[in-house]
Amino acid sequence: MYQAGGFAYDRWMASRGIPIHRGYHIEDLRTVELGWWPERGCRAAFIQLLGQEGVSEARVTEIGPGQTLPPLKLAIDELVYVLDGRGVTTVWPEEGRSHTFEWQARSLFLMHHGWRHQHASMQGDRPVRLLHYNYLPIAMSALRDPELFFNHPAVEPARIVDEPYAMARLAQGDGVPSVARGTFWYGDLFPDMGVWDNLVSTQRRGAGGKAVFLGFPGSEMSCHMSVFPSRTYKRAHRHGPGRVIVIPAGEGFSVFWQEGQEKIVAPWYEGSVIVPPNRWFHQHFNVGSTPARYLAFHPLRQFSGHSEKVQDRARDEIDYSQEEPWIREKFEAELAKRGLTSLMPEEAYRIPNFQWKEE
Predict the structure, then answer these.
(1) Are residue 60 and residue 116 in the same domain, yes or no?
(2) Same structural domain for residues 84 and 53?
(3) Average pLDDT in the 2-8 region?
(4) 359, pLDDT greater than 70
(5) Domain shared by 115 and 179, yes or no
(6) Among the listed ranges 129-143, 191-205, 232-246, 270-284, which one has the minimum average pLDDT value?
(7) What is the mean pLDDT of residues 300-315?
(8) Using one digit for the tens of pLDDT, what is the confidence trace for 145-193?
(9) Is the dihedral of CA 162, 165, 171, 174 positive or negative?
């Protein structure tokens, strides 16, 4: 239960002495303020937006030009997304051979629990920035001693059946979540989410978008990436807490609102992060001249709304034909500022559950 002074994670986070960024969104993680974190030997900041609190951790780490960070072992799995720069990571269990892999801007990879890892910059002229995502707030509520989660000798390394950090593969069979059958890729290293093209059409959110769902070996972590065309937008919907959404490509904005309350507009482009608050409606708009991509990190599957599944479509999703006129007006006004016009079909506003033609 939430106690005075916050969750156990909140108290630990505040004790680190580095910036904690709150609110609804951050326009650019590549330039957000950081502070020195002596334990980790780098500059860093916590990202705790409204929809994360008590569910998921996000933080930004900066690796200086040519710098190598100290080794670290975590007791939980962690996803890492490269916001900017190029580098290399070496991982190793307590016993056994090490594995080294390179990464670049928009790479995504998993840090397996119990494996030591060490990140290093391959650039001598500018720093690297990484976005980290994990379930540490929940873990610290169950085990309140923070020392258990970092470099603890009792934590056994995860057992990995496949070759670590090899090429991702298409997952099929009973182990694939029903929401993602046929689109579920499985691996612990995805080299560039900005150009990933193994996508399938999805009609759930409209706009003629496509998506891919990602899973990770030996882990219950998951995420998905949605790609949708220029000058279109998604249907409004709401779900549970804990998702952290980062933008690999595109230009647009999102709108958040509690039912019957004022709407909040969050502009975004590459490097932005947004978190839909728990059970708030939200809607994503592409006002650029190219397709937009958003990469959504999922909370634990125990939370309602796993993989953007809505509990009750009639209550938790708003069709284009039923949305407030302000939505379309705002979208078209933002396009006009850029000398563009909408590509939304007129039929979408007249025909309930309008279906785009698949390309």
Answers:
(1) yes
(2) yes
(3) 64
(4) no
(5) no
(6) 191-205
(7) 63
(8) 999 999 999 999 998 877 888 878 876 544 444 444 446 898 999 999 9
(9) positive
89 by Cβ neighbours in 10 Å (0-12 / 13-18 / 19+) ranks as buried
In a shared domain, residues 334 and 203? yes
Residue 124 and residue 173 share a domain: no
* 262 in a structural domain: yes
Three-state SS at 9: helix
Number of domains in the chain: 2
Distances (CA, A) of 302 to 105, 122, 217: 31, 39, 19
Kindly list the distances between the CA atom of residue 229 and the CA atoms of 100, 250, 285, 330, 344, in Å, as whole numbers in the listed order.
36, 10, 10, 18, 10
Contact 309, 237 (CB under 8 A): no
User: What is the residue range of 235's domain?
Assistant: 169-349
Backbone angles phi and psi of 262, in degrees to 5: -65, 145
Q: Compute the C-alpha angle 217/222/224, nearest 5°.
A: 125
The answer on 118 and 199 residing in a single domain is no
Strand partners, 256: 264, 282
Residues 102 and 215 in one domain: no
Q: Which of the listed residues 91, 117, 149 is the one where a domain comes to its end?
A: 149
Tokens of 17: 């002495």
Convert the pLDDT of each residue in 199-241 to its tens digit.
888 777 778 889 999 999 889 999 999 999 999 999 999 988 9
For residue 192, report the phi and psi dihedrals to the nearest 5 degrees.
-160, 100
154 located within any domain: no
pTM: 0.93
CA distance 345 to 359: 15
Residue 315 lies in a domain: yes
Q: Look at residue 353 in the predicted model and tell me its pLDDT.
A: 86
DSSP 3-state assignment of 314? helix
- Interior CA angle at 243 toward 241 and 249, to 5°? 150
Give the domain-ending residue among 149, 182, 202. 149
**Same domain, yes or no: 180 and 312:** yes
Here the CATH number for the domain that contains residue 55 is: 2.60.120.10
C-beta of residue 239 within 8 angstroms of C-beta of residue 262: no
Inform me whether the pLDDT recorded for 314 exceeds 70.
Answer: no
Q: Could you tell me what percent of the chain has a pLDDT over 90?
A: 74
